[in-house]
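Contributing new records

If you add data, match the layout below exactly. Sequence lines come first and carry their own label; structure lines follow with theirs. Keep one chain per record. Anything else will be rejected by the validation script.
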Amino acid sequence: MLLKLQLEHQMFGTPVEKLVLKVLTAEALLLIAVMKMAVKRCIKHYLKAGMNLRKSWKILAATQLKIVELCENAGINSTKLDDLIAEECDEECDSTTKDTNSRPYPAEDNFLQSFDLVEDFQSFFDNKDTCVPAIKDLKQLKVMSLFGYGLFHLILSLIPPTVLRVVNLLGFHGNRYLGLTSLRTVSKSSPNFRSTLASVTLLWYHLSLRPTFISNSQLLVSGINQGEKIIDQTLGPELRDTWITLYFSGTMTKLQGNVEGALELFQAAAVKAAHLRECKLMAYYEIGWCQLIIWNWTQASEIFLDLMAEARWSKGFYGYLAAISMGASGGSVAACRAILAGLPGRIKKTVNIELDTYCSRKSEMLASSKNLEYECKLATLEIIYVWKCLTLSEAQAEELIQAVDNRPQQLSPSCLAFSYLLAGLSWKTLHNPHKAEQAFKISDTITQPDQRDNYITVCVLSEMAELYHQLGQAENSILMAERARTGYKGYHLENRLYNRVHNLDIS
């Protein structure tokens, strides 16, 4: 439809109208590329995604040049236009900190009502007879192109290494700093759906994505501070009670270590998003995670069972989380085994991505386990750990050490290795680095018959690298980090662990 509209306006419409449609086309191509990379992970679709990215980039680059040309035709210096946008952003920032009614968004629970597309584009189509665009239209067009430009660079800078090689072959790369700067400019511009969407994108980057690939605590705090600033300055006080603000406030609170406070915010977000199905499910997912993090296995199981029934996507993953939570709680063994036994068939009907493969194989192993409750507890803690959400109190650390000491006799090599990894983390929590090192070494010596289970060894080596760094043993730290980065391939969750392994805080 978008391409049809563009063709219709190639011969009709003002230059600004044509550029508006070109920017929309570039954004559509960009989002199509992202969906191809996310959903259909094979070389064929990576190449198609790369071509769409290239088309999007060409359109955005041509648009930038055309804006400069329009500025010259209108007698406006393009640098002055950038200055006007910057001034507008500064004024917008100042006004949001001083005036609670500065942004004309409705203070209602439906966040999407702030996306008034008709109002955003109406000014471009009001004056069809004019050939010289007004400075206001040029400013808005510039902001539109900056949004696409920023989104392009941010997405390109975050794609997995496999896809990145394909993209580099096509002759371009992403600059994360430029992407974030462009999106920050858009988020502070005159209020419209793009400024709000830019703010949400920045919140997603700083609070949801960034914590998954950094190990440096200072960088994590910096991301939290950025998120807090965006919520206070760009979303504004009048959106304080909408589901999107409550959702990201909950994410920020969880990162700060206050899981109970985050749980309350996510529950409030779920209530606000009651009539927005996918938004409500996002909040439910975070509620389930909070219950997992604080070891409320029964409540977590109930949430994930609901998600498995209601969600359109990731049913296999939700089913796996529901089953291992149910098993860890000591609930119905028959129900837990039934869910686990049915998951491989359910997952095979979906896209065969990394997470699906992991959940399918783990489900088959657990369904036939003779120590179901113990191994389900290990599986829940493994998921929490790999997702970088495992924080242990001293009481929990002592409980885990006792559980490892009293473990069942017949454990698979992967479960045994992970139990010693947990013991090492527990000893670190209890400030006993010597015993932590011993536990990590035992875990490292356990050979995994299947290379897919080497993700545990990679995690152990990463923990040892950080432990040696804290102990001042730089040579051992570098050796462990190098083994983790280059010693193993083809293991489960390799893409998820890639950033953790390659961004260890040992410098």
